[in-house]
Amino acid sequence: MRFERCRTLFGDDFTKLQNAKVLIIGVGGVGSYALDCLYRSGIHHITIVDYDTYDITNQNRQIGSDAVGAYKTDRLCELYQGIKTINAQVDIAWVKEFDFDPFDIIIDSCDTTKVKIELAKKVYKKLIMSVGSAKRFDASKIKVDSIWRSYGDAFASKIRRELKKEKFDRNFKVVFSDEDAKCKEKGSCVAVTGAFGLTICSEVIKKLLKK
């Protein structure tokens, strides 16, 4: 049986995973690994949102990136049959208009600060957010905590500042790393970006099993 070992691990709670609905916003170096992990864990009510196509520079870290030029949503739909896709650019207007109610968990693995702020304001109760995974290669430095207790990451610090400007003080989890950035440009290593995605998957599973 395909999910026999998952059933052995989770017992009767496995049905909670099978019935869960998860939305992944951004399926690049972090989001694609979160998708893979969730799918292999028996969560198949997954919707992914992205608008980008694969570039050759994605091949160091993104699942599906062998299909250079293809839309990420199209390629991942082929690899993970049964998932739902939304090919759209996520901006503030999209977040304000989209209906998040059907989903149990929202995974934010996009790169745009303003979008992340808007998502936090709208769906913080369901949100698990990825912050700075680029410019690092030590997966042992990855941590999970409240956005307000995250540290050592410039991206998370920026998000905290912007949330304070919006007078937002609610709590949600972030996956972050306190490893010092190793370069100034867009350097990345799948050992960290992929591990961010897998860590997010683990957090999703823990959250669903508590319900």
Give an account of the 3D structure.
With 211 residues, the chain is an alpha/beta fold. Helices cover 38% and strands 16% of the residues. The protein is built from eight helices and seven strands. The protein has helices at residues 4-10, 14-19, 31-40, 72-79, 92-97, 113-123, 154-165, 190-210, and strands at 21-25, 45-50, 84-87, 105-108, 127-130, 142-146, 173-177. The chain has a seven-stranded mixed sheet with strand order 3-2-1-4-5-7-6, sandwiched between helices. It is globular, with a radius of gyration of 16 Å. The two termini are 26 Å apart.
Question: Top keywords for this entry?
Answer:
single chain; seven-stranded mixed β-sheet; 211 residues; globular; Rossmann fold; alpha/beta
Blueprint (SSEs and pairs):
Layout: H1 4-10, H2 14-19, E1 21-25, H3 31-40, E2 45-50, H4 72-79, E3 84-87, H5 92-97, E4 105-108, H6 113-123, E5 127-130, E6 142-146, H7 154-165, E7 173-177, H8 190-210
Parallel strand pairs: 1-2, 1-4, 2-3, 4-5, 5-7
Antiparallel strand pairs: 6-7
